[in-house]
Amino acid sequence: MALSDSLLILSLALAAEAAFGYPTRLYTAVGHPVTWIGRLIKMLDRTLNREGWSFGRRRGASVLALLALLTVTGLTVSTVEMLLRPLGLAGLVILAILASSLVAQRSLHEHVAAVAQGLREGGLDGGRRAVSMIVGRNPQSLDAAGVSRAAIESLAENFSDGIVAPAFWLGLGGFTGAALYKAANTADSMIGHRTPRHEAFGWATARFDDLVNLPASRLSALLIVAAAALHREASPARAWRAVRRDAPHHRSPNAGWPEAAMAGALGLRLAGPRVYGDVRVEDRWMGDGRAEATADDIDRALALYRTACALLFGLAAGSALLAWIIAR
User: Fold this and answer.
1) What is the rounded CA–CA span in Å between residue 119 and residue 151?
2) Quick check: 278 pLDDT over 70?
3) Which of 96, 105, 171, 214 is the most exposed, having the fewest neighbouring CB atoms within 10 Å of its CB?
4) Short-list 97, 79, 76, 85, CA closest to 9
5) Taking the CB of residue 173, how many other CB atoms lie within 10 A of it?
6) How many whole angstroms separate alpha carbon 9 and alpha carbon 316?
7) Rounded distance, CA 145 to CA 291, Å?
8) What is the maximum span of the chain, computed from C-alpha positions, in angstroms?
9) Cα separation of 157 and 146, whole Å?
10) For the chain, domain boundaries
C-alpha cells in the first residue's frame, strides 16, 4: 500500500474513532478485534505453554507462539486489505473504519474521566472502583492521591501504546501494520508478565512489544511536551526536563517517556513505589513536583491528552497531504 494511502487511512481512522468510538451495540453483537486476538492468544497459551516443560523449552515455545500469532493476524488482515484495495476511495474509507477499532482515544478518555468522577461522587471507594478498571495494581493499597496518580499514569502510558503506537504502525504499514502491532501489544498485556506461568512463555512477546513501542513512546512524549506549550497551566520546559532526566530510569523502556512528560507538564510526581497484588515494586519517580494529585489534576491531564490527540491528528493529516503532493 502506498504511504499516501496509509496516511489517509490513519487520518480518517483517528477522526472516526474520536467522534464515535467503538459502538457498544457492535461490541455486543460481534465483539472487538482485541477480543478476537485474545481468543487466539489463549489458545496458544493452552497449547504451547505446558507446565511440565523446562524453562528453556517454554521460552522457545514463546517464540513459536509469537510467530503463529503474527502470521495468522497478518494473513487475515492483509487478505482484507487485498480485497478492499480495488474499490479505490471507498475501499480506503472502509479500511479506515475498520482501523479505527485499533485506536482507543475515546474509550481511554472515558475510563480515566470516570476515575475523577468516582472520586468526586463516591469518595475513595468510588475512585478505587473506577481505577481498578484501568490499572493492574492493588487498588486497596491506594489513597486518594494514589488513585489520582494511577489514573494519570495510565492515561500517559496508554496514550503511547493504545493510540500513538497503533497510529504510527497504521501510517507506516497500513491496516496490516496496525493489526500486527495490536496483536503483539495484546499478547504482552495477557502473557507478558513475570508470573510463574508466563515468565518463560511471555518472554518473546514482552521483548517484541518493547521493541515495537520504542518509536511511539518517544513520539508520545514529544506530543505531550508540545501540548503543554498550548496550555497556560502546563509547562513544556518542565515536561522536557523530566523526560530527559527521568524517562531512562523507568523500569519500562517505554512507559517512562510519556509518564515523565505528563508529570513534568503538570508539576506532579508519577510512578514511584507501587503495589501489584501483594508485591511492592520500588520504581523511580517521574517528575519532581508534588505527589498529592487530585481529581482536578486528572482533569488537567485529560485536557492535555485531548490536545495531544489533536496534535497527533494534525501530524497525520499534514503527513497525508504532503505524501499526496509528492506522489502526484
Assistant:
1) 11
2) no
3) 214
4) 97
5) 16
6) 9
7) 7
8) 59
9) 16
10) 3-327
Enumerate the β-bridge partners of residue 279: 276
- Between CA 308 and CA 305 the distance in angstroms is 5
Local confidence band at 265 (pLDDT 50, 70, 90 cut-offs): very high
Nearest Cα neighbor of 168 from 102, 222, 216 is: 216
Percent helix, strand and coil across the chain, each to the nearest 5: 75, 5, 20
Name residue, grid cell 490513519: 10
Residue 18: the pLDDT is 94
The rounded distance, in Å, linking the Cα atoms of 220 and 161 is: 9
Beta bridge partners of 270: 286
Separation CA 215–CA 287 (nearest Å): 21
Q: Is the Cβ–Cβ distance between 261 and 225 less than 8 Å? A: yes
pLDDT band at 140 (very low <50, low <70, confident <90, very high): confident
C-alpha cell at 300: 488537567
- Nine cell digits for residue 152: 494519570
Average pLDDT over residues 88-95: 93
Burial, 22: exposed, middle or buried (Cβ in 10 Å; 0-12, 13-18, 19+)? Answer: middle
Q: Which three cell numbers stand for residue 225?
A: 511536551
DSSP H or E run through 270 = strand 270-271
Q: Which residues contact 268 (CB under 8 A, 6 or more apart)?
A: 149, 152, 262, 287, 289, 290, 291, 293, 297
Pick from 76-85, 220-229, 245-254 the range whose average pLDDT is largest: 220-229
To the nearest whole number, what is the mean pLDDT of the chain? 93
- C-alpha cell, 227: 501540548
Q: Give the C-alpha separation, 220 to 27, whole Å.
A: 28
Neighbours of 136 (CB within 10 A): 13
Residue 279 has pLDDT above 80, yes or no: no
The alpha carbon torsion through 164, 170, 176, 181 (nearest 10 deg) reads: -20
pTM for the model stands at 0.93
Mean pLDDT of 119-142: 91
Backbone phi, psi, residue 196, to 5°: -55, -35
